[in-house]
Input
Amino acid sequence: MRIDLHTHSTASDGTDAPAELVRNAAAAGLDVVALTDHDTSRGYAEAIGALPSGLTLVTGAEMSCRIDGVSMHMLAYLFDPEEPALLAERELVRDDRVPRARAMVGRLQELGVPVTWEQVARIAGEGSVGRPHVATALVELGVVPTVNDAFTVEWLADGGRAHVAKHETDPFEAIRLVKAAGGVTVFAHPGASKRGHTVPEAAIAEMAAAGLDGIEVEHMDHDAETRLRLRGLAKELGLLATGSSDYHGSRKSVQLGEYTTDPEVYGEITRRATGAFPVPGTGGA
Output
């Protein structure tokens, strides 16, 4: 089995519509794909409606969190999307995205960049607006060559000249909320140091004690040494070790299925979940 547990669609900051994403996942030879848009479940219905035979969809979300001043992302899988407390928290984070993106546009204008809110809104479309959309605007304007080049202290990285903080959930609260909604939690790309400061291992141990299920080990932002270290940490803390592409369509160079999760780990995730269940494809439109 080939299992990719971290992808994004146009419901947040990917470039593939949910239906297109699942069709592309099947074409890439995946057996299982998780749709984990940022703080939203809006892409579920379209993805399920288009799900090809032979492909299973895991519903999820990537929650924006912060601990001790460090931003981090928490992957939540197979939770009940209508559970009121978790839904309210995701909406709170999502609703803060527009004023935050507007503020980043303002800072960029102060730095002499001719970006406009209308440009960023056009790029975001119906998705939850975020830094990748602002970064794409910088690429369109020729300010930076790629989206990744916008995520530096020169521009949009945490602490960068145009960075603006947003509401982010305490990770311990995220774990509690997801668990209460029947879901499973995995700390996304915990060793991605080029994105900014990373969460110390002592804090990851505290999260594990609070019910964190796993950490994402195989990821494009982790080099071989980091993967080895994280795999050892997962074993030490009794955490599941997952792998995934963090696919964003054409916004990033990584391809669907470039990094994958072991089938036994996937099986354990599905065994732990009670809020929702994987959806097998029946040959959608």
